[in-house]
Amino acid sequence: RGEIKTGRVNWRVYLTYFRAVGLLFCLGVVITYILAHGLSLGSNFWLVDWTDDARRIAQFNGSSSRGGGVNGTTLEPAAADWHSGCVWLLQALAIFWGAFISSIACLRASRLLHNNLLNRVLACMLTFFESTPLGRIVNRFSSDVNCVDRDLAEKWRTMLRIAFWLLEALIAVSFALPWFLVALIGIAAMFHGVQFLTAVGGTRASVALYWGLLANLLKSPVVALVSPDDGKGGGRTVGSEFLQRFADDLASVDAEMALACRYLIQAACGLLERAAVLCQLDVSLLLALLAGIAALLFVQVAVYPHSRIFISSSRQLKRLESTAKSPIFSHFSETLSGVTTIRAFEQQSNFKRICNDRVNFFNRCYYPNISSNRWLAVRLELVGNLIVTFTCLFGVLARGTVSPGLVGLAAIYALNVTQSLNWLIRMTSELETNIVAVE
User: Fold this and answer.
1) What are the TM regions of this chain, as residue ranges (predicted)?
2) Who's near 300: CB < 8 A, 6+ residues apart?
3) SS3 of 399, please?
4) Is residue 226 included in any domain, yes or no?
5) pLDDT category, 312, cuts 50, 70, 90?
6) What is the pTM of this model?
7) Dihedral of CA 126/127/131/136: which sign?
8) Using CA atoms, how far apart are residues 267 and 265, in angstroms rounded to an integer?
9) What is the CA 410 to chain-centroid distance, rounded?
10) Which of 94, 176, 403, 432 is the most buried (most CB within 10 A)?
C-alpha cells in the first residue's frame, strides 16, 4: 500500500492546478460568475420595485383624493417587459460563457497535468518501476486522471456557483434587513474572539505544563524512574507510564481542555443572558437574546464543526480510498499476468480471497464517506431552519418600515440558504478531497 499523507492539502498543489488552468481562464471564470450573479441580484431587486408599484399607485391615488401628492412613477408594461427581457438575456449569456470558459479551463488543466505525469513516468529510472507496484501507476493514470477530468472540474464549478449565490443572498438579506447582518457580524466577532483567546490561553497553559513536567522528570532521581521489585529480582523501568503522561495526558490538555473551557464560557454567557431577560422582562432584550442565540448557533454549528470536522474527515477518507484502490489494481494485473501459474498450482480460491479482502477494505474506506455526508445534511438542515425562522421573525417585527417586496425577497433567499450551505461545504470538501488526485 502506498504512503498516506495526513493533514491539509499543501497550497502548492492548488497552485500547480491553477497554473495548469491559466491566469486568463481563472479571471474569465470569476468575471463571468460575478456578472451573472450581479445581474441576478439586480433583476430580483427590479422585480421587487415592480411589485411595489401597486402599493405606490394606491398611496398616490389616496393622497391625490385628499388634495396631496406622492412623487411615484410606474413603468409601462412594454418597457418593463423590455427591461426584464434584456437583463435575463444578459444573465443567461453570462452563465453560458462562465460554464463554457470553466469547462475549457478544466480540460486544459487536465491535459497539462496528464502530459506532465506521463513525461515524468517515462523519464524515471528502472529502479522506480521495480520498487513501485504496477497497480499504483495504473491507479494514477486511471482513477486520479479521471477524477481531475470529471469530478474536480464539476466540483470546482459548483463550488463557485454556490459561493457567489450565497454572496448574492447575503447582500439581498442585508439590504432588506440590515440589523440582522449587524447582529450576526457582532456575535460572530465575539465568538471568534472567545475562540482565539481560549486557543492562545490553552496553548500557553499546555506549553507551561509540558516544560514543567519535563523539568521535574529530568530532576528526578534514578530510583523514581524504576518501579519497585517485581519479585523476580531487580527492578524494571516504567517507561510506559511516562509515555502515557507525555502522550495521552498532554494531548487531552492540548485539545480537550481548551475546547471544554470554550464551551463552558459560552454556556455561562448564555445563562447570564437568559437571566437578564427574565429579570428585565423586556421584549427588546428577548429579541436581542434570540438574535444572539441564532447567530451563535449559525457560527458554531455551520462554520466550526462543518469546516473543521467534516472537511478534514472527508479529505482523509479520500486519501484512504485512493490508497486502498491501488492494491486492487495491482492484484488484478498480477493475477492476469500469472493466471496460468495460478491454475497450475490450483490457487484460484486463494487469489479470490485476497481480491475480496482488498475490495472489502476499499469498501470500509468508502462507507464512512457516505455516512459523513448524512451527518452534514442533518446539521445543515437545523442551521437553515434557524435562518429562515429569524429572517421571517425580523420581517414581521419590521412591518410598516420595510417594503413587503424586500421582506419577500429576503424570505425567498433564506429558504434556499439550507441547500446552498449544504452544497457549499460539500463542494468545498469535495474540491479539497479531489485535489488529492493532483497531489
Assistant:
1) 12-36, 87-107, 162-191, 283-305, 382-400, 406-425
2) 191, 266
3) strand
4) no
5) confident
6) 0.48
7) negative
8) 5
9) 24
10) 176
